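Good morning N.,

You mentioned wanting to compare the apo and holo forms, so I went ahead and generated the holo version with magnesium ion. This is what I fed in:
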Amino acid sequence: MIAQLFSLTTLIGVLTAGIRLATPYLYATIGETLGQRSGLVNLGVDGIMLMGAYAAFFVTFKTGNLVLGLLVATMVGGLLGLVMAFFSVTLRAEQGITGIGVYLFGLGMSNLLFRKTLGTVETVSGFPPIHIPFLSDIPVLGPIFFSHNILVYGAFALVPVSWFLLNKTTLGLKIRAVGDNPKAADSLGVSVAGVRYFTEIVGGMLEGIAGASLSIALLNVFQENLTSGMGFIAVALVYFGGWRSVGALAGAILFSMVNALQLWLQVIGIRIPPDFAIMMPYVLTIVVLAFTAQRVRAPAALSKPFERGEG
Amino acid sequence: MRGIVKRFPGVLANDRIDFDVRAGEIHALLGENGAGKTTLMNILYGLYRPDQGQILLNGRAVAIHSPADAIRLGIGMIHQHFMLVPTLSVAENVALGLPSSRGFLLDLDVVTRRIRELSNVYGLRVDPTAMVWQLAVGEQQRVEILKALYRGADLLILDEPTAVLTPQEVRELFATLRRMAGEGHSLIFISHKLHEVLSISDRVTVLRDGRVVKTLPTSEATREELARLMVGREVLLRVERSPVELGDVRLSLKDLWAHGDKGVPALRGVTLAVRAGEILGIAGVSGNGQRELAEVIAGLRTPSQGQVEIDGMDTTGWSPERLLKHGLAYIPEERMRDGVVRDFSVEENLILKDHVDRPFASGIFMNFGTIASYADRLIENFDIRTPSRDAPLKNLSGGNIQKIVLARELSREPRVLVAAQPTRGVDISATEYIHQRLIAQRAKGTATLLISEDLDEILNLSDRIAVMYEGQIVGVVDQREATVEQLGLMMAGAHKV
Ligand SMILES: Nc1ncnc2c1ncn2[C@@H]1O[C@H](COP(=O)(O)OP(=O)(O)OP(=O)(O)O)[C@@H](O)[C@H]1O
Ligand SMILES: [Mg+2]
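and this is what came out, ligand included:
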């Protein structure tokens, strides 16, 4: 029996689950990376994910339209990103506190709405898997990489797309400049506030999608505190990934694999407290930062509000 | 600009200023540190809003609310404190904010090619692919100039662009500026170096305490006249040095090697000794290892080989803290980055290095009374223009920030002093005072290593002069025998003749 648990099928199962689980982390981490590259810290990721998850689930549950659900989740996320940007860019509020505010709002609001509009845990049928012709027929690799739903593919596609945006476009250059020396960017006529609003809104949209990926693509349920802190893990993964898209990918995969492994360990009866799993990305982040601190630097203007003509 | 008024808390930085620039003119703006030059230019560039007054461009009143507005109106500015993003490459810094030839895609290859062309035409050597944080200050200044040339403004403001350039680079820059003026561009040029102002400008406006003292054609101006207008009294342009009895060797460098930021050796076997009561000048074009030399002595850079000895003790690898307790004072070249905490007050910056020691602290308590009177004394002696001792440092003018570092380091009664470009960016009366202090310190037996690109300064102050070239000392000459020509040759790499 033990032998069976170590069989190829189980291995494929764990790896497939690992890839699937990376999805919400990828969306959220890349969303947060965009914001941080422009100098904004958003600790409200988890709250935005919860609102996105709820919105996607509710709309899908009522209309049966998955695309509409996803769209609404994206909009809700973008709206919360806008709120976050208004506080930290326009009002120059302390970003850490604003983020916690957004988190608590998202947590409370999604709970309230859940109780008022759904009441019990319901299910929907989420985005179906898309088997990519030929590729999904490859033994072992096929099921692991090429038999997922659209949101999983989207998350992985986001890695090169966000890399391209940051490094190959004029907008990306502005984002990087604003995050490192907003004064310099401002002196060249770049709108610091404009860039930061953009990254925070797009980041919020991606975090909304991260939530939706849980409620209408992976788990297909909504319940109170569905994310249970995933958004905070995503924030840690931004640091882990050194503010880079590829780093975010590495972090998300590593973490979701560890998670999948831990689930599997529980299945075969080796119990480890789930709290350890939640600690894992933080511990890994600290370890990685401790060893790479010299090469990886946070954007210099991170969490500092910008005001022109301040000497 | 008509009747410009700008008030900051506790300071009237610009007081009803009228200032105009003609097409094709190079107009110099002169004034002591804190006179209000940068403030006026920041208003013109949309970084500050004036409290009163208006700006006319080609006879039409314009509203400039942001740098974006200024850029649209054809105004460019080279800032006194560099506006560069250190984590980006030179080309990226130049391309920032500009439309790309490929729409939303970056066209760095095109930008790189243009930069190479411009640097050839204007004699501004920079590697467009280098990261800005790796560049020496002189190179950063060239990037700032390139940025402005690339954009091609009709009215270009240059706020102390020559402070960190070598004499050759200044000549090349001046040729560029003349050419631009000839093509009809207008230029505003700020500098504390009077000979530069006299050689490049068509007219000069002198500011003092936020007011225009006088605007005059350069052809009618003399050095002495300009100095008097700026300061309001006669200024000594030379210092008196009396002979001093030399003591023991205080600072000794033995075959020092060290890597620069780009990973190539920047110091290649430097051996020098400075004795008590001696000023040893280090002449050389910047980027030949001076910065690394200073950093190694100050404990900020680890040498790959060789020894530093202070008072006969091997201090190689000591922490900066231990070194400063041991009597080392250090005036860093990049004072904004290495010398001050921008968000601290003037007073806190003045006691930064000694804040844990008597008389400023007893045990864990700070003696605020002592600190305050000490700060007031330094502010007075060094003529630091600040609304008060607890004003945030970042609100001071560029030259006054420089003075804070100088005041702190010179007042620590050091046994060994490493001074890198001590008068860069400070006005003539402050230069005069700093020179006097260096000489006074010498009389008290401090061993001073004076690193400077200003040959006049080196010749005026030093007892001996060592010339650095490509990380090596190419020769040491006695001040009495040294000539500008000879030093110039050695700086270009010729060995002692
Ligand atoms: N943002 C600010 N907040 C408060 N005070 C300021 C600010 N900027 C400048 N000041 C004050 O305004 C006065 C003029 O400063 P400014 O920078 O224009 O001088 P400057 O002529 O350029 O001097 P320097 O030669 O030292 O660069 C100074 O007293 C300075 O302390
Ligand atoms: Mg200035």
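The two ends of chain A are 71 Å apart (CA to CA).

Happy to go through it together on a call whenever suits you.

Best,
F.
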